[in-house]
Specification:
The chain is an alpha+beta fold. The chain has helices at residues 9-19, 34-59, and strands at 64-69, 72-74, 76-77, 88-95, 98-109, 115-124, 127-137, 142-152, 156-165, 174-186. Strands 1, 2, 5, 8 and 10 form a five-stranded antiparallel sheet that branches. Strands 3, 4, 6, 7 and 9 form a five-stranded mixed sheet that branches. A hairpin with a 2-residue loop joins strand 6 (115-124) and strand 7 (127-137). Mean pLDDT is 81; it is low at 1-25.
Length: 189
């Protein structure tokens, strides 16, 4: 006589054999089993992946323009009002008509003047659309970052333009370097 421990797999197999039931490995797992939950999740992931791929295909690629700059002299200005300053172009982009998210940054420095205030502007044909100020002491470099949204009704240029305080007659010049100007075409909501 064979003894079978209660709850063992041998007892289960024997009971199935005696009852004449088949043990088909290809049958669907019970709805509340871990395998069934994993199968349902895999199906949902496949559906979501297909939906994301369809949306990405519908949107198409996003146009991006970028300009980088080397070392550019920055005009020093004697005028008190910044609106009267002469500005130097650190970087510019020619863009077709449309709306854009614009991001820019530059490093400015004046090795000849012990303290300088730098004003930088994002400009378009109709005027400025962002500005930022940096202050440099003992010829330490200052990073200036700007961002804005601009809509051009016709093709035109945008630019990152900067000026420095200090005597315009001082020898040498202030400089802008490591400049980046990026425009990403966007649809305004």
């Amino acid at each position: 006589m064979i003894r079978v421990a209660r709850g063992s797999s041998i007892a289960w197999a024997l009971a199935v054999a005696i009852a004449g039931a088949s043990c088909d490995a290809r049958s669907a797992p019970p709805a509340n089993s871990t395998r069934a939950q994993i199968a349902a999740l895999k199906s949902q992931v496949a559906t979501l992946s297909a939906q994301v791929a369809a949306l990405q295909g519908a949107a198409g690629p996003v146009p991006v323009w970028q300009a980088t700059g080397g070392i550019v002299p920055v005009q020093r200005n004697d005028a008190t009002n910044v609106s009267a300053w002469t500005l130097s172009t650190a970087a510019s982009l020619a863009l077709p008509a449309g709306s854009y998210l614009v991001v820019a940054k530059t490093v400015v420095q004046d090795p000849e003047v012990s303290a300088s205030t730098f004003y930088c502007f994002l400009t378009r044909p109709a005027g400025n659309f962002d500005e930022s100020v940096g202050y440099s002491v003992q010829d330490e470099p200052v990073t200036i970052a700007l961002k804005g949204v601009v809509t051009l009704s016709a093709s035109g240029s945008i630019a990152l333009r900067c000026g420095a305080s200090g005597p315009a007659s001082a020898s040498g010049s202030a400089v802008a370097y490591d400049t980046k100007l990026v425009a990403v075409q966007a649809t305004l909501q």
